[in-house]
Structure formats: structure tokens, C-alpha cells
Amino acid sequence: MKELVFATHNSGKLKELQAMVGDKIKLLSLDDLGCHEEIPETADSFRGNALLKAKYVQEKYGLPCFADDSGLEVSALNDAPGVYTARYAGVGCTSDDNMDKLLGALQNQDDRSARFVCVIALLHKNEPYFFEGTCPGEILRARQGTDGFGYDPIFKPQGYDRSFAQMSHEEKAKISHRGKAVSQLLSFLRG
User: Fold this and answer.
1) Which end of the chain, C or N, has fewer beta carbons within 10 A?
2) Helix locations, 22-105, DSSP H
């Protein structure tokens, strides 16, 4: 089994991705490496932040690595929270804090269209490769479901009548922004 570092501390993301890649690749998290620091995400794009994280791990640990940066872009908010999705309500905030802030910002908005974006940066033989996925949908007016993580309870993907948090991991992986980007990554790795 091939090992590949996924530059994340997010156990929800790690679990979701391990289920997607199956048993052909064992994903190691930053915690598995003993890397407990937060890698600065100072770029102004998902692509830039993903590359910063992948380069950090490769330079510090010398291991094959990929990183993702993903977020939610809400049309009525000029694509906010964007690269600040995880810390939309401030540093150290919880998912509930973020959802509360977003629901408050959209309280009087009729346009609730949004999309999740995921960019994966893979460093392969010291060359960066990028894989991108998007998932259009809308922001619900209240939380629905308890599975998933982040904004999943308030995001309903286009063409569905349920939130991400009401879907199985398998169902979400087929249509999610991350699922689409990971599918491209896996195709590349299989070569």
C-alpha cells in the first residue's frame, strides 16, 4: 500500500478522503507526522493556499504530499467567505459560529446561491499539479442533518432536496467539490 501525506489536521476531511481513495493508498495526516503547528494560509486563492501547505510539508518532512484548500462562495456576499471559510466568524471559531454568521448575513437575502470549491495541490517529483472541483447549490435557511462537517448542514447541492449533512459519505463524495477534485487526483496517480 502506498502512503501519501494529506496536509490536514481536519479529521473529518481525512476520514472523507480515506473513504474515497479506498485501501490502495494510506493517507497520513499532519497529526500522524507529529506536525501540530498550523501551516500559514496567507495566499488570496484556494490554489495558492493548497500549494503553500503542500510545499511546507514536503520541505519539512520530505514525504510525498498533497494539500487541499476549499471553501464556500456565496453569490449574495460577493463570493465570501471564500478563502476565509474555516475562520469566517474569527480565529478559533467553531462550525456553528461560522454557520450562525453566514445565516445572519443572508437573513434578508432572496439569492441564496452558493458553491463549494476545492483545489488540491500535489507535489509530484517537485512539480505542482492542481485538481479542482466545484459543487453548486444553495444556502438553506436553517440547519438540516447531523452528518458531515463544516457548513454541510446548511448547504443543499443543486438538484437535491437534502443538505450535505443528510447524505451518506458515499453519496456526498460522488457530487461534492472535494469528491470531484479527489477523483481527478486519483486518475493522475493511477497514471
Assistant:
1) C
2) 30-33, 46-61, 95-105
Type of residue found at 187: S
SS3 of residue 106 by DSSP: coil
State how far the Cα of 50 lies from the Cα of 41, in Å rounded to an integer: 8
Residue 181 to residue 178: CA distance in whole angstroms: 5
- Decide: helix, strand or coil at residue 86: helix
Distance of alpha carbon 35 from alpha carbon 29, whole angstroms? 9
Mean pLDDT by 10 residues, the chain (191 residues): 86 83 88 90 95 94 92 98 95 95 97 98 91 98 93 98 94 92 90 70
CATH of the domain at 169: 3.90.950.10
**CB 71 within 8 Å of CB 50:** no
Phi, psi of 53 (to 5 degrees): -65, -45
pTM of the model as a whole? 0.90
- Helix (H/G/I), strand (E/B), else coil: 7: coil
3 state SS of 146: coil
Number of structural domains in the chain: 1
Q: Of 69, 79, 100, 161, which residue is the catalytic one?
A: 69
Assess whether 69 carries a catalytic annotation.
Answer: yes
Q: Which residue range(s) make up the domain with 182?
A: 2-190
